[in-house]
Write a structure and sequence with these properties.
single chain; 298 residues; alpha+beta; Jelly Rolls; 9-stranded mixed sheet; 10 helices; globular; binds 2-oxoglutaric acid; binds fe (ii) ion
Length: 298
């Protein structure tokens, strides 16, 4: 691992703002690898939420056979296919709770209907407990230099899903990739297409741990560009990284920690087959220096 000079902003919001007065601008232009807010959401609430999701049968314990009978989300199948893997032969499972633009965006009517149901589900789930979605939106607002943070919506008011819970079982791996509704999916019929930059905001709820090693995100100091696509498709990114001496940062999170990163940078989460599944609450974020609104979706 080459020594990195690429900094992260981290600790609590005040410390981050004292270090950098425009943190989202710094994330957009690649000056910083990530913004990490430690203990953004109480650890005890993370554990309690996991138990709640299990009680609601929205997720399962790792050894529950319903995990393997659960259909993989379409975007996961696409991801495996992109990586040259056979999704149906894979034992690696992921359960999503929420509405994914990546998954359903091909059918606008279905997407917005699903998002409506997700809003209703989350309203019910968080009626009497701490809401991690609020935590993420408030943290983002505090970093936003006066920009307004809202759930992504179309000009006619239709709302996207506000966030998604992703439960990763059995060493589930995200290989090196980037995310962009603009550059990858080219979803020009959606409002969020207008943003110049896309970030992710991910709150860790539970780590997958095996012999002291946890599954953690890695961000490479390499922005996606069209010619890199052949390298990613050919699974030659590690070779490319070595040849070009690309720095990277591993962001180690504890339950309750929240991180923001630029999804235009190549990133990955190598899987660790732990006793517990890795559970996160994930969002995508649309940001432009010259837009007064920041939109959040999943
Ligand atoms: O789970 C994470 O930390 C990031 C996952 C990721 O890269 C994605 O959802 O696109
Ligand atoms: Fe990603």
């Amino acid at each position: 691992m080459s020594e990195t000079t690429w900094p992260c902003l981290q600790d609590n919001i005040d410390a981050i703002l004292a270090d950098c007065s425009q943190p989202l601008h710094a994330l957009a232009n690649g000056e910083v690898a990530a913004i990490i807010i430690r203990r953004a959401f109480p650890q005890s609430e993370c554990a309690s939420l996991i138990q709640h999701l299990i009680a609601e049968e929205l997720m399962f314990d790792s050894d529950d056979e319903r995990v393997s009978s659960h259909a993989l989300p379409t975007d996961v199948v696409d991801q495996f296919t992109r990586q040259g893997l056979n999704p149906t032969a894979s034992q690696r499972k992921r359960i999503d709770i929420g509405t994914s633009l990546g998954n359903l965006g091909g059918d606008q009517e279905r997407f917005f209907k699903d998002a409506e149901q997700t809003h209703a589900l989350f309203k019910r789930l968080f009626e009497n407990r701490a809401n991690p979605i609020t935590t993420v939106y408030e943290a983002l607002s505090a970093l936003a230099n006066g920009k307004q943070v809202i759930t992504a919506r179309e000009s006619d008011g239709r709302e996207y899903g506000p966030a998604i819970f992703r439960i990763h079982y059995g060493g589930y791996t995200y290989g090196p990739h980037f995310d962009s509704v603009r550059l990858r999916e080219a979803r020009s019929q959606y409002e969020v297409y207008k943003f110049e930059h896309q970030f992710a905001g991910v709150l860790c709820l539970q780590n997958a741990t095996s012999e002291g090693v946890t599954a953690q995100g890695i961000i490479h100091r390499q922005r996606w560009y069209p010619e890199l696509e052949a390298v990613l498709k050919g699974k030659r990114f590690y070779e490319y990284q070595q040849t070009n001496d690309i720095e990277h940062v591993q962001v180690d999170l504890e339950p309750g920690d929240l991180y923001f990163f630029n999804t235009g940078m190549i990133h990955e989460v190598p899987g660790v087959e732990g006793d517990l599944p890795r559970a996160v609450m994930a969002t995508f974020i649309g940001y432009s220096d010259d837009q007064s609104e920041i939109m959040v979706w999943s």
